[in-house]
Amino acid sequence: MESSDPLTIAFTPIVHNAMENVGVIEQYQKVIQNSAAAPFLGSHNFNLDKYVVEKSLDGLFYMLGEEEKKIRKNPAAQTTSLLKEVFGKKL
Q1: What is the chain's mean pLDDT, rounded?
Q2: How far is CA 62 from the centre of its chain?
Q3: Whole-prediction pTM value?
Q4: How far is Cα of residue 66 from the mean position of the Cα atoms in its chain?
Protein backbone atom coordinates (compact mmCIF):
# COMPACT_ATOMS: atom_id res chain seq x y z
CA MET A 1 0.00 0.00 0.00
CA GLU A 2 1.39 3.38 -0.99
CA SER A 3 1.27 6.23 1.48
CA SER A 4 -1.06 8.13 -0.83
CA ASP A 5 -3.64 5.30 -0.92
CA PRO A 6 -5.53 6.47 2.19
CA LEU A 7 -5.53 10.02 0.82
CA THR A 8 -6.83 8.78 -2.53
CA ILE A 9 -9.65 6.94 -0.77
CA ALA A 10 -10.50 10.02 1.32
CA PHE A 11 -10.27 12.53 -1.55
CA THR A 12 -12.20 10.58 -4.20
CA PRO A 13 -15.77 11.24 -2.97
CA ILE A 14 -14.94 14.87 -2.20
CA VAL A 15 -13.46 15.43 -5.66
CA HIS A 16 -16.33 13.61 -7.37
CA ASN A 17 -18.95 15.68 -5.51
CA ALA A 18 -17.11 18.92 -6.29
CA MET A 19 -16.89 18.01 -9.99
CA GLU A 20 -20.57 17.08 -9.98
CA ASN A 21 -21.54 20.36 -8.28
CA VAL A 22 -19.78 22.51 -10.88
CA GLY A 23 -20.94 20.44 -13.86
CA VAL A 24 -17.66 18.78 -14.84
CA ILE A 25 -19.13 15.27 -14.76
CA GLU A 26 -22.05 16.29 -16.97
CA GLN A 27 -19.77 18.03 -19.48
CA TYR A 28 -17.38 15.07 -19.55
CA GLN A 29 -20.27 12.68 -20.22
CA LYS A 30 -21.33 14.86 -23.16
CA VAL A 31 -17.79 14.83 -24.56
CA ILE A 32 -17.36 11.06 -24.35
CA GLN A 33 -20.74 10.53 -26.02
CA ASN A 34 -19.68 12.73 -28.96
CA SER A 35 -18.30 10.47 -31.67
CA ALA A 36 -16.25 13.35 -33.11
CA ALA A 37 -14.31 13.50 -29.85
CA ALA A 38 -13.43 9.79 -29.89
CA PRO A 39 -9.94 10.20 -31.48
CA PHE A 40 -8.97 12.61 -28.70
CA LEU A 41 -10.10 10.45 -25.82
CA GLY A 42 -7.50 7.72 -26.16
CA SER A 43 -8.41 4.92 -23.82
CA HIS A 44 -12.08 4.25 -23.20
CA ASN A 45 -11.10 3.17 -19.70
CA PHE A 46 -10.18 6.71 -18.64
CA ASN A 47 -11.33 7.41 -15.09
CA LEU A 48 -11.92 11.14 -14.61
CA ASP A 49 -12.23 10.87 -10.82
CA LYS A 50 -8.96 8.95 -10.56
CA TYR A 51 -7.15 11.41 -12.84
CA VAL A 52 -8.34 14.51 -10.97
CA VAL A 53 -7.60 12.98 -7.55
CA GLU A 54 -4.08 11.98 -8.66
CA LYS A 55 -3.39 15.47 -10.01
CA SER A 56 -4.81 17.03 -6.83
CA LEU A 57 -2.55 14.91 -4.65
CA ASP A 58 0.42 15.71 -6.90
CA GLY A 59 -0.32 19.40 -6.30
CA LEU A 60 -0.77 18.87 -2.57
CA PHE A 61 2.55 17.03 -2.23
CA TYR A 62 4.29 19.67 -4.36
CA MET A 63 2.99 22.49 -2.14
CA LEU A 64 3.96 20.58 1.01
CA GLY A 65 7.46 20.17 -0.40
CA GLU A 66 7.70 23.88 -1.18
CA GLU A 67 6.60 24.78 2.35
CA GLU A 68 9.09 22.34 3.83
CA LYS A 69 11.89 23.97 1.82
CA LYS A 70 10.90 27.39 3.19
CA ILE A 71 10.78 26.12 6.75
CA ARG A 72 14.15 24.39 6.50
CA LYS A 73 15.80 27.47 4.96
CA ASN A 74 14.24 29.90 7.42
CA PRO A 75 13.97 28.63 10.99
CA ALA A 76 11.81 31.66 11.83
CA ALA A 77 9.13 30.04 9.67
CA GLN A 78 8.87 27.31 12.33
CA THR A 79 6.42 29.41 14.30
CA THR A 80 3.53 27.12 15.21
CA SER A 81 3.61 24.70 18.10
CA LEU A 82 3.18 21.79 15.73
CA LEU A 83 6.08 22.88 13.51
CA LYS A 84 8.27 23.47 16.53
CA GLU A 85 7.48 19.93 17.67
CA VAL A 86 8.13 18.50 14.20
CA PHE A 87 11.46 20.28 13.92
CA GLY A 88 12.48 19.43 17.50
CA LYS A 89 12.39 22.91 19.03
CA LYS A 90 11.42 23.31 22.67
CA LEU A 91 8.53 25.68 23.27
Answers
A1: 82
A2: 10
A3: 0.69
A4: 15
